[in-house]
Amino acid sequence: MSVPRSVAAHRQAVVELLTGVSADRGKLRLPLLEALGKALAVDVYAPLSLPPFDNSQMDGFAVRSADIPDGGAELRVAEPVPAGAAPAALKPGFAAPIMTGAVIPEGADAVVPIEKATPNAFPDPAAGEAVVVLPSVAPGTYVRDSGSDIGKGELALVAGTRMGPAQLGLLAALGLTTVEVRKPWRVLLVTTGDEVVEPGKELTAGKIFDSNGTLLEASMRQAGLDVVRTGISDDDPSKLLAVLQRHTGPAEDRVDVIVTTGGVSKGAYEVVRQAMANQPVEFLPVAMQPGGPQGLGTVEGVPFLGFPGNPVSCLVSFEMFLRPALSQVLGTPAQRPVLKARLAESLTSPEGKHQVRRGTMGADGTVRMEGGAGSHLVHALARANALVQIPGDVTELAEGDEVEVWML
Amino acid sequence: MSVPRSVAAHRQAVVELLTGVSADRGKLRLPLLEALGKALAVDVYAPLSLPPFDNSQMDGFAVRSADIPDGGAELRVAEPVPAGAAPAALKPGFAAPIMTGAVIPEGADAVVPIEKATPNAFPDPAAGEAVVVLPSVAPGTYVRDSGSDIGKGELALVAGTRMGPAQLGLLAALGLTTVEVRKPWRVLLVTTGDEVVEPGKELTAGKIFDSNGTLLEASMRQAGLDVVRTGISDDDPSKLLAVLQRHTGPAEDRVDVIVTTGGVSKGAYEVVRQAMANQPVEFLPVAMQPGGPQGLGTVEGVPFLGFPGNPVSCLVSFEMFLRPALSQVLGTPAQRPVLKARLAESLTSPEGKHQVRRGTMGADGTVRMEGGAGSHLVHALARANALVQIPGDVTELAEGDEVEVWML
After folding, report:
1. Is the N-terminal amide bond of A135 cis, ω within 30° of 0?
2. CB contact under 8 A, A172 and B215
């Protein structure tokens, strides 16, 4: 193996692999709520202004500000304007009771809140004509101008935006009921290893249950990918290659990315390395622990990532390389929130390797480690809610030192 | 209205409402991947140890450490032990080629990595008998002990744990294929207002499209709730109450929580307040902006939350009250990650009110505001990725000041 590649360089290589090789999968028009978590496929322009009309920000009286001199004035009370109504123009000398969100009547240019009126309650319309004393008010006061949030024809959302509740709420406010999103990518996920047994089957001597498949499929689903699973591949390279090639043809079985686990190291039985012998796939060390050995390339033109075989290495490989690359290339999933935290304990880290430890963020802003550095510790991993990033040039950290933490 | 309640006190009131009133909805046994994001219903104990057997942490040679004196020794090479095999016992004077994850043969107690062997490559088993020179090694070196991650019968996951990829991966590693989770709560979501029109319909003068329904349903789905929607309710209180009561009976239409939007303020046409006149529901001001007016209580025993009518107020009400209460009471969704960020601009905030501004976190650790304080600014909201928390006793902040930020 060559000189280990840095984490940043390998992430960039994954970004370039995904950008360069896989074509746009196309668009999908979906009802708003089904688009939750997906990436917008096109720019969306506002078909109307928001607010659609000048409206009141308060419950109060709509007035012509010029009607009220500095010392205040007594005005006649007009017909009330509830939200949703189309009011008549406001005559000079009148004040119209108006509710929050209701249309500012033609002629009115300001709102005096009910609290500042005398009396400070709305008169009963059934009780006949009434008057109200109001203080002076500057034009525009408590008026939400039409188009002040967005004007008709303006860019509302840019292509690539991840559709969360607020983005979908905006499209609804614009009267839209569907949205064009990017079709989710399909990933073929293959776990390998003669020692690996499907959960639920019998566990004979020397075997372990496959946790990588479940762990990575869950991670991929959470990241918005469609996942195609095969059974566990045994250690026959030609069979493994045949499985992958079933999903690289032009037909509908074709996937956008292939991910394997295991078989990328330097042992004597490395099925993934052997299967890829005639494919443009590189196996290389990344200066990271766990998850150091990585495979990267294409199989019949489909981007290929070979993750190592331990569960913690799989999760770290996904979180450090594939997930951020998807965020960058597809616009979804969202980047993991990055926090600064203080270490609840001292730790050591190997020189020259970026170490990714698993930790739990406390409410007090400290992070404590879950389990040691071992990449097989899946119970410890299940207690963690964060990845703790220890750069390659750091070998010792004391309790209280600040570290970067990625929230899972 | 009385003295405004603090944000913390109102959140606590929501927690107590959800804890006290709604009974456990029961459990649901699901295939592992369908449990993603849901909360574990029961404690899970490990049906086997992890690792299930002592195994090698490296590719190398399994040895009896007592066979190798300080200066090293030449040993005869035994049958190789691939991962997944059940090896024969290791005879004294022999070293067995062993792969990462493979069973440590009986008699062996340490592994020497292949890099430290002379020659530093595995001999071809077909080439006949071979020898290898190995340095001395302490007992236990590069051996992962059976049960070192978790022992058989130990608590693997505690009830209430949110099932993410790592937790599901652990259950798979334990050989499990299904898991009992808490049944998701059902929420009835009703948007109100004479001025509000369903997106896709015609927008006449004075009307606006309903964005609250889409925004809150998306938020609730993201938080793992099942959402029941009704159409938009007009401003007839008795009709609204009838709609709610259809979902509070003992039948299968019954929901666990009711959320309405709008009609909780002090205007003349407050349909939710009027509909709740004979229900144990309190309408009160919370010292928060936006989202100050809140309704809280029960309708026929079902917890009820009345949110204000503006989209930003709805989102803030959900994020500040309902979502954290669900996290606390149900174990899911996960708490929002809280960051410290530096303000990219100065701002002012009303005294005595906790202000929740919308912002965008930059890669440089600063946060800039999106839009002003106005609770109708749904386009600005759609550009934001964070809520910026300005406590009630803070009225002015300068550029560079530190604020608490909740990542959306």
Report:
1. no
2. yes
